[in-house]
Every structure is written in C-alpha cells, then in structure tokens.
C-alpha cells in the first residue's frame, strides 16, 4: 500500500481566486525517497504542508488525500503527530526548549509517554545521530547544522513512518547541508522511513532519490524516476537540476547523467566522436581604478583570542565582481566586515576609493560609498510593506520629497521588485527578501557593495535574476565583493575569485583558471570536465565546447515577476492574509481564557488570603509583616499559575507570550545608548494590552523572574515579579476589555502612572519590610522619597517607549493574529 | 565541570534544602541562629563562587549591610534603653541599633543563600521541578530561556546591519539616537513575532496539545538522594521542634531578651548548623568515595 495517495488535489488559499495547487495526482510508495522540485512559488511548500493536518494551511481543498489508505483529515491527530515527521526550513525557529535533551523529548512528552520510555528513545536517537557530545548543552551553543540535526532527531524520536522535509538545508552551509542530507539518506535506507523532501541543492539530493516530482505553477509537471523525468523538462526547469544533467541537456546530449561520475562517463563518450571547441577565454574588461583595498590587515575579536585575519591583502577595482570563497570559520565574513568598516583592524589599513577608511567619518562611509548587505535580510525590514521600507530609508537619507517617488521606482525596477512593492517584507520568499535588502542598500548609491552569502537558500532561477542585477551594477562602474560558498554562482558571475584559508587569501585568479586549477573546491561542472575539456567550469562552458550555446532561457522579466509574486503570496509557507475561510482540518483557535477559573481565583483571594494574614498575625512575631506579604504574593502567583494551567493555553498563545517575556528580558539590559532607559515595563504593558490581564500578569512576573536568573536571584525577586505582574495585569484589565481607549496618549499616561504608583509603590516599601520589624509610616514615606527620582526616570522612559513603540508593536501583533488565526 | 557535589544531587533535594535554609534565615532573629546562617551561607557561597564572590561580598554586600544597619535606628524608636536623642526629639535606642545589626546580618545571609541558589538551581532543574505541577508555565519559562539568548544575538546582528547602512544608534543627536534605537527594537519585534509562528507550527507538528503532557527529565532519584533528603528533613525537623520549644525566640523590644543557652537549645542550634553545612558534608563524604574508587581503579 502506498504511504500517501493523492487524487485530483486542488487547493486554494482562503481569500484567493487562483488555486495554489491544481489537479495533483501522485502517490508516495512506502520506503521511497521522493524529491520535490520547482521554482519558488510553485506550490512545493503548500503540497508538503498539506501532507500533515497540523501544518496544513487554511483554505479550500478538493480531491482526495489518503494517508495509508485512509483520508488524512479523518486520521487521528495524535497518530499523525507520531507517524508523520515534519522538518522545516529555518533550524532555529523550530526549536522549542532551551536544552538539547529537553528538545529531543518534547514530542514524546506531548504524546504523554512515560519517562522510562522517553529515556530509552532519546538515548537511541542520540546514539544514531551522534548527539551525545552535546546532549547536555544549551541549544544556543550549537551551530546551525547541529540545530537542524537536532530538529531531525527530535522528530525521529517519535518514530515516524514518513519524514517530510521542506528545504531543510536552506539555512546551512554546504558542508553541513551535505552532512544533513546524508543523515536523511541513512534514515531512509537504514530505517526504511519514507522521505519526501523539497530541496534547492539538487546536486546532492537527486542522486539519492527514487522519484523526482517537478511542480510548476501549482501543477505537477513531471513525476517519475529522475533519469526519466529530467530530459523531458522544459528549459527553465532544467536550471533547477544537477549540473551534470544541465550540461548534458544544454549540449543536446543523450542520456541523463546525475552525479559527477556519470557526468564524466557521459562526457568522455561524447568527446570521442565530436570535435571539441576550446573554451572561450573570458574577455578582458575595462576596469576602473582600485576602489577597495586591504593592506596587510590583521584582526582578532578579543585581546587574547587567536588572530582571525593574518595579513590579508586584497584589492578590487571598479566594475569588478570579486568572490571570496573558503571554508567555514576561515575568516571570510570577518574580512568583509573589516572592509565594510564594521570592524576595525588591529594592524594594517583599509583604503576605500583611495582614502584611508579610518579617516572617513562614520556617517559619510555609508553615503554614496560603501554598502554592506547583511547575511540575513530580515535584520533590515521595518515597514508594513516593501514600499514603506524603501520610503523609510529615503527619509533617513533626507532625499527631497519630490525625488522620492522616482528613486523608489527606479531601485525597485532594478531589483525586479516593482510588482511586490505592496507586499509585507516577510511575505516575500528568501530570494526576494535578499533583493529587497539589496534595494534598500542601493538607495545610498554605494560604489562598493559588500555581500555576505547572497545566494543562500535561493533556487537557480532566483540566482540568475540576482546575478543579472549584479552585472547591471557592475556595468555602472560599481565594485562588488561577495563572500560565498556557492561555487557555481561565483564561477558564473564573478570576475575574480579568491580562496580564503587560515586568515589570508591563499589563491586568487579569474574564475575559469581558479576553478579549473582546484580539484576539490570547485564547481560540479569543473569536476566533470577535468581532463576532458580543459578550462570548462560552468555548464555553459561545457555546452560551448561541445558546439552548442546554452540557450538564453531566462524568461522575460515583468510577466515572470508577476506570476512569481502572485504564486508566492498564495503558495509558500501558508501565509495568507484573509482569515474568513478556514479549511475543515484547521482547528479553530478560540480565545480560551480564564473565565471558568475566575471564580476559583476569587475564592482563593477571598478566603485564603485573609486566612494567611490572620494566621500570620497570630503565629508570627517580629517578622510578621515580611512573611505575611511574602505569603500573599506566593498565593497570588499560585492563583494566576493555576488559572493559566486551567486555560490550557495553545501553542501559538504560549509562543507569543514567550516572545513578549523574552523581549521584556532583553529590553531590561539592551537599550544600549541610554543607560537608564529600560524597555521592560513598556513591553509588559503592551503584552497586557494585546493578551489581556491574566497573561499580562504572567508575562510581567516571568520576565522579572528570568531576568533575575541572569543577574542573580535575591529576596527582592518576589516583589519585583509581583509588581511587574500587576503592571501588566492592570494594562490588560483596562485596555484589553476596552475600559480605556487604546490611544497613544492614554497608554503613555497609564504607563508612566503604573510604573510610578504600582511598581514603585510595591518595590520601595519592600526594602523597608525586609529590614524593619514594625514598619512605620515615616520609614515607608521616606523609602518613596528616596526611590522617587529613580521611579521618575523609569516612568518617563516607559512613557517615551510606549509613545514610540506601542502602536507599531500592536499593529505587528494584529497582523500575526490575523495571519495565523491566533485566538 | 561542577566541583560542587551537592549540585549533582536530585533537584528535589536541592529545592527542599534551599527552601528550608531560606525560610529559616529570613525568620530567625536570634543572634546564635543568625550567626550560624551567615556562616553557612558565606562559606557555601565562597566555595561555589570563588574569588568573584569574595569581591561581591566586599564591594556590595558589606556596604549594603551597613546601610541596613543604619536605617533601622533612624526610623525605629522603640526600645527602653535610650542612648541619645535625634535633633527632632526622637530617641536613639540600644535595641533599635541591635535590631538593625541583626537585620543586616539576616539580609546578608539571605542574599548569600540566594547567590548559592542561583548557582545550584540551574534552569533545567527549575523546569524539572515546575514541569509536573504547572506544565504550561514551565514550558513558557523554558521557551523564554530559549528566546533570550537568541534575541540578544539577533539584536546584535540588527545593530550591525543598521551600522552598515549608516544608521547606527550611537551616532547623531539625542532624538536621532532614540529614533534609531526604537527602529532597532521595531525590527527586532517584527522578526521575533513573524518567526515565532514557525515555532508554534513545530510544536503542533510534534503533537502539542493532543494528549496530556508527561514530563521527562534526565534526573534519577537514587539512594544517596534519599539519604540526603532524610538528613535534611531530620535536621530541619529538629530546628522546627526547637522553634516550638521557644529556642529561637528572641525579643528586641522593649528590651533585648535572648533565651539562655541550655543543653537542648544548643542541640537545636547544632542541628541548624548541620543543616547549613550540609553541602560541605555531602562534598566531603562523596569526595572521599570518589578518590577511593579512583585509587582502586589505578591498581
């Protein structure tokens, strides 16, 4: 029996007219390894997510989806949780707990398994995956590759019969990707688990596959054995295939080589009966003057740590794309940061446009000169739409208003984003986000552009688009320096490549020579052509040598963009913005609150608290004030905790509450430029407004508790927790239920008052209670007087924060609520 | 690695121990008991924290004690033995000075015990303890602990990215600084909220909410944990018995009156001393055992 049977499946996201998937007919055999390919926005993610009810996006579905012969929608969710394993793209996002061992056990705990069984399974999985050395570590200490392996192990501990992976290596470097994919292969071949995977890195994964499914525009373009499927693919989809196959198809060859070995066999056969052209030398270009230069640069991060850069020399001219390649931790990114002026070298100097970088003032460096694009484009997005983000940047650059429209339009056009200007930056795919980041930086009109891993997680089609943009910039005389692991991309687009090793550049040449000299650190095409066709490093070179010019099959720009964006919004990641239509298998998350438990809480308050006070007065002598107040606080916590547990909070509520707690903790110490400013109270108040009183209280209390875990617990902790809890609770009580209007001014006044009266009102006397037996009014009053200046700063900073961030955060929260049907 | 043997005991043993010593040290005002508590707390804290803790004691704790000792006589004018009068006519009494000194010792002991607690009760022990009783809240704490280092790291990346665009929060005037700082927080919040949905999906995909959760832990309750627990309960029981006999009674007002130190009362105080020094006994006993075993292994 097949694991999955899909008949006539059509799926439309809620509020959309065009289906994201149409008429899909396919089946996944038990124990098979299937690779799902397609351009970004072709519906891969949608299809994979539909295979498990818990991850299924909401929308209209027709057709049949059978899991082990039974309709998936009718399969018990608990059984699905155990038997269908799902691993997504972003490794960090999928981890729930702070410790490795706890994360491994998370799913098993959710299934309610007893401890001995969990112990056995976790032990087994750690041995299989080689996790023992880091079993006791914090997740935050792991590398990206380890985190993704942990996610896989945590899913495998539940003993699934099928494993679904959605671009699992998009965030990993090449070595970690290969290691991860090999583990997946092991799971398939040693344990017989069915694998369904979508992956950009087809060179590594297609050789493992039994079946290849190619999606295009929501339809199943082809499905079958890779060697049967690939030769018949249309031009633009061939680009997604492994290099040997691409080279073969481009040169009009027979057969279908998939691995480098097969590619070499094919190529040596072919050259026997064809005359081989010489690989065309790259044309010498008209280069500008030296734009960026590193001269004997040394760098280390800490005084006593090892040198990361050891005498780097590098010079890049205008109109040149320079690629910096090398293994992990070789110092490539550090070198780029030094060149970009983000780090200062310990020895040596950096010259930008002929001037010493250290002599250019910081603000002037990034205007019409240097542009540094971070590895993660999400570190740049601030607006509700892409256009808003661009406008924000234009305002920062003080571009006159009448010129803004023109600048925005031209940069969006250059980066092929014109159709997407009204999308939310987070609704864009990885490749589009990278281009959006580029667009933002290009507004500063940089002449030297520094990129860090720009093609990470992009499919080959997006890479081409990106490469063409770089070529256009180059043509305008800019110089581009990119740090990359992507040998194929560098071979295609770079003018020079340097190999970074052990803190310096050990080899440097133009890509054709660079990659044909290297035998390991090179492209698949070069590995294939070594000794057969000299100097060929790209599929285009091989095809050219065999007398065919690879067709320029890049589709015309504007129409492609349109369909891409349209599909993107509907197809990838289950991101829809309309919540009117819900599919049957998405459980409606209603706001469960504490309603049924309010009575209990009241009872607690009405009976137990007075009893505590009475008992304290009679039983205790000198210390009664202290202990009674402590006991009452403990009871308040117990009541709230109990109510929270009783409400059985759902995962989305828990996660967002944890986000607010962590923001409040980070906000306690993170406001770097103005030391007395603390964002904690502001974040807690916003949490109260967003979630309501009870959760507001908990966020406040948990935030104070955890921030004290980092600083050190003390006897003041219960009071701080209680006071901050009350601040959050009050905010929720007054704003969430609509007693006070959610207007900016009102929130600010509330924030200042609550910090001054409630927080200060509890914290100040608590210190008196700690040291005096019979607190007298004078002592309490003077504690307020002494505390007042600090409280005032605290209150003022809270009001300022709320004035500036309350509205934006609430809007962001509302977007999340609507988008993911939270509450 | 952890040199302290007591930290390796089952979290329940650690928790019970700290619950007793913290409540006792906040409760007892009798000089003997205060001294015992301070001694135990200081010794254990120094043992755990080493040189760093010593400088904390000298630079922060002792000034704090002095302040606490001064505050009390300033505001508390009870007591029969008047030593002098303040300019406003309020009396300065011997009893209030004594009480101030006692309160400052108590404060110091509590702070030191808490510092030990922070070192010994690591987050995973805490989550283990709360896991059974309040599973959702425990998970919330675990998730927050997971997010905090992540957010701090991301905040750093966002700052670097902003600097690369020439929008560094440490440049410009006050208004520009605040505006850019707020922008960084805004980017941070968007990132955190948007990405949190993946986390929720990952939880749901792994069956969260489909059945009542069980609580897994890597801790095992062994014979030595039971022995330690019995010892702690026995010592604490004796102390509590002593309390009911009035051994810890100590009045400061209107006149200082401490009970005489009789033999049974000394026993109770000794029990308290034993309780406060438990981590050392444990280390001593277990330390001997390990060294013997290692020796055998060599032969």
Q: Helix segment count of chain A?
A: 30
Number of strands of chain B: 2
Mean pLDDT of chain A: 85
- Regarding quaternary structure, what we see is heterodimer
* Major sheet description of chain B: 2 strands, antiparallel
**Helical residues, percent of chain B:** over 70%
Number of helices of chain B: 9
| Helix coverage percent of chain A | 40-55%
Distance between the termini of chain A: 39 Å
Strand content of chain B: under 5%
**Overall geometric form of chain A:** globular
Report strand order across the widest sheet of chain B: 1-2
Structural commentary:
The complex is a heterodimer of chains A (823) and B (299). With 823 residues, chain A is an alpha/beta fold. In chain A, 48% of the residues lie in helices and 14% in strands. In chain A, the strands form 4 sheets. Chain A has a 6-stranded mixed beta sheet, sandwiched between helices. Chain A has a 6-stranded mixed beta sheet with strand order 16-17-18-13-19-20, sandwiched between helices. Chain A has a 4-stranded antiparallel beta sheet with strand order 2-1-4-5, with no helix packed on it. Mean pLDDT of chain A is 85; it is low at 550-596. Chain B has a two-stranded antiparallel sheet. In chain B, a hairpin with a 5-residue loop joins strand 1 and strand 2. Chain B has helices spanning 11-27, 31-75, 94-120, 123-133, 135-163, 174-205, 223-244, 263-276, 278-298; strands at 82-85, 91-93. Chain B has 299 residues and is mainly alpha-helical. The chains are: A alpha/beta (823), B mainly alpha (299). Chains A and B meet through helix 2, helix 3, helix 4, helix 5 and helix 13 of A and helix 2, helix 3, helix 4, helix 5 and helix 6 of B.
The gist of it:
With about 800 residues, chain A is of the alpha/beta class. Helix content of chain A is about 50%, strand content about 15%.
